[in-house]
Amino acid sequence: MAEAISLSSGLVALVAFALKSSSVLYHTVDSYRSHPKNVRDLQEELEALAKVLQALSETVEQSKAIDFTALKLPLFRCGNACKEFDEVIAKCSSRSGGSKTSFRDWAKLKYMGDGIDEFRRMLAGYKSTINIALADANLRQSSVTAERLEAYKVMIKNASADLEDHLKSIDEKLESTFSRAADESDEDAIQMRQMQEERSSTQQGLAICAQLSAHISRIQPLLAADRGQRSADARAMPPAVAERITREGLEECQDTLSNTANRLQKHLNSIMDRLMAKSKTALSSPQDAAELGRLQEEWETARLCLDICSKANENVTKVNINVFENVKGDEEVLQFFASTTGKIVHARDISLGPRGVQFGGQLSDASIQQISRDFSRAEHIALTNTTPEIVTPADQAGISVFRNRYGPGFKLSSQPSQGDALSSPAGQTGHGSESSTPPKL
């Protein structure tokens, strides 16, 4: 790994760096014959990580228009973490004699104060974040099935929960390091403790903003759904003034919360920078200072990964699905399970009679109307068993009046058989003898 890689490197270089570092670490672990369960789990995680990184590399090369710059820090940390853990294994192996057949010191491996399981979970966080970024890009470029969309939601939820746990662990380590640095610094001890209190207060403010924003996001779709239901019942009645005021007020609240969160985040970053600078000066050991630097990078990375998950969750909640389930059609029925607005259509357990016809997928309004007219006309011809007549404009006007009042109807025989309940006088002509019984559709 002689090449110089920094956070300022291009995205392609960072993807390659992370992929190479993870591959080198996998081969290092695989070169030892002694593999406890947690080591085998680490190998599986490294394999999965390599596949996701390879998919990201291909996507970046093929789709130049997609912006993945938010992944630069996670990729940088992922590559560095794999590289540094590989160095930890090499040092531990050299102390135990360097034998790859008898190495038994896996339990002694520590990275950022944690063992193999915690390191594996950290890699899993990088992998999940990259996966979510890839799925989010795909969601914005093409349609997905309802099943994949639901799996995507679950993936975001699980990744967010794991990242929050990881961030909490990093926070606790930082708090411990800052306290130790304050104890070792006589001059800046009071100031460092004040900054620690301000840091905690700022994080609490950010948590409150996030909770309120999430609550408003849950309310807004409910308001829209309620308005849509009442509009349908009232024949598309325009929304009430109170609804508009409520909607605008919620949007203003979201904007205010977003601005407040941005200001708090800048304040938190400033406090963290000052705490880091004073702590590194106060810590006597260069190793402690280097460890603190890694903790800071990981803290920033975890927060960024959570932000990526949050934005992906916002995007996925905007995707609407038309769901049709457990629908049973009659013997002769024309069914449409279609979207005219590009929404996802999910149909399951749909049954039709032997002469039923069904259309599904993405169709335009004009296509649905034309198909309906064509099948209605075909059914009408089949029921009358006659060739359609050419009618005059006057006759057509009479038919239109009849249909508007009674429905399509069908033509009676010109010579009704005996026993017909409805008959016409002999010699009657024209189109006034249509029945009001419509054909089945």
Summarize this, please?
This protein has 441 residues and is mainly alpha-helical.
Explain how this protein is built:
The protein is mostly helical and 441 residues long. The protein has a domain at 323-406. The chain has helices spanning 11-30, 37-62, 72-95, 116-141, 146-184, 189-233, 241-282, 286-317, 365-384, 393-406, and strands at residues 321-328, 334-339, 344-351, 357-362. A two-stranded parallel sheet has the order 1-3. It has a two-stranded parallel ribbon with strand order 2-4. Helix 2 runs parallel beside helix 4 (116-141). Residues 410-441 are annotated as: Disordered.
How do the SSEs run, as a string of H and E? Answer: HHHHHHHHEEEEHH
Number of helices: 10
State the end-to-end distance. 71 Å
Largest sheet: 2 strands, parallel
* Class by SSE composition: mainly alpha
Note poorly predicted spans.
Answer: 231-236, 417-441
Strand order of the largest sheet: 1-3
Q: What best-fitting shape do the alpha-carbon axes yield?
A: extended
Strand content of the residues, in percent? Answer: 5-15%
Q: Number of DSSP strands?
A: 4
Q: Supply Rg.
A: 34 Å
Averaging pLDDT over every residue, what do you get? 77
The portion of residues assigned to helices is 55-70%
